[in-house]
């Protein structure tokens, strides 16, 4: 089970990496062959095997020698492996899917401060279908309350900040994401999720540099929430 979910995670991570690279530029994820971003050479199918191709090519393009990374593939692998190690098979698949669908959202928000509605909607649909497999003890009432409370809480904060400061302080996607997380986790885990996300944000701010730089920086709250939500799943 561990090897299977780890392999699926690496494959999904490869897809997520391509999606996060192409989608912000308006390129289709389903059309066109993969190519090197440096020289434009098409990448052969045997060079697209997740992680293995990276090791064989020593992390460099076969055509021009430019370096490339497999960060998303490795993260996807780790998500699948950790889910399999800590949960029984049926639950592990649900937890892994939760992490896998959060992965592109976390990356896009980190890079572009963008949480696409289509991905949020997909995460919601997958949650309605598969979240009960992870924890059947969370009732649909708990999930509904979590969805409403998660969205309403951050949306209220966003509107109050805009009213007081007369400028945007939070993206419109962040409240939607917390609402979707509420459907997955139920209202019970939302406070812990927000607490962990706040800690991650504070740590990032402290490590980011001087105070003037911190005041002008925009922090990817969605990324912090995504990471925090996956961590919260493993808490007792």
Integer-rounded radius of gyration: 19 Å
Quickly count the helices. Answer: 10
Number of beta strands: 0
Give the terminus-to-terminus CA distance.
22 Å
Our estimate of the beta-strand percent is under 5%
> What is the molecular shape?
globular
Query: Unreliable segments (pLDDT under 50, ≥5 consecutive)?
Result: none
H/E series, N to C? Answer: HHHHHHHHHH
| Class of secondary structure makeup | mainly alpha
Estimate the helix proportion, in percent.
55-70%
Mean pLDDT: 85
What does this structure look like?
With 236 residues, the chain is mainly α. The protein is built from 10 helices and no strands. It has helices at residues 2-22, 52-56, 71-86, 89-112, 117-134, 140-165, 173-185, 190-207, 211-216, 221-233.
What does this entry show, briefly?
This protein is mostly helical and 236 residues long.
For the structure shown, list the relevant keywords.
236 residues, mainly alpha, 68% helix, 0% strand, globular
Strand and helix map with partners:
Layout: H1 2-22, H2 52-56, H3 71-86, H4 89-112, H5 117-134, H6 140-165, H7 173-185, H8 190-207, H9 211-216, H10 221-233
Helix pairs in contact: 1-3, 1-4, 3-4, 4-5, 4-10, 5-7, 6-7, 7-10, 8-10
């Amino acid at each position: 089970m561990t090897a299977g979910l780890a392999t699926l995670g690496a494959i999904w991570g490869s897809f997520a990496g391509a999606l996060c690279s192409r989608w912000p530029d308006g390129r289709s994820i389903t059309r066109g062959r993969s190519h090197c971003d440096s020289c434009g050479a098409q990448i052969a199918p045997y060079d697209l095997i997740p992680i293995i191709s990276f090791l064989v090519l020593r992390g460099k393009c076969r055509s021009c020698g430019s370096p490339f990374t497999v960060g998303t593939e490795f993260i996807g692998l780790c998500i699948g492996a950790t889910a399999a190690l800590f949960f029984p098979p049926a639950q592990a698949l649900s937890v892994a899917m939760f992490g896998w669908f959060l992965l592109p959202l976390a990356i896009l928000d980190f890079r572009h401060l963008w949480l696409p509605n289509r991905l949020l909607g997909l995460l919601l649909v997958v949650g309605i279908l598969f979240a009960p497999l992870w924890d059947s003890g969370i009732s649909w009432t708990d999930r509904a309350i979590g969805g409403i409370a998660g969205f309403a809480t951050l949306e209220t904060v966003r509107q109050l900040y805009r009213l007081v400061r007369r400028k945007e302080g939070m993206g419109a996607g962040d409240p939607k994401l917390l609402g979707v997380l509420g459907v997955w986790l139920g209202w019970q885990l939302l406070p812990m999720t927000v607490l962990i996300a706040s800690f991650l944000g504070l740590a990032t701010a402290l490590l980011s540099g001087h105070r003037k730089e911190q005041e002008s920086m925009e922090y990817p709250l969605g990324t912090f929430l995504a990471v925090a939500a996956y961590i919260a799943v493993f808490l007792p």
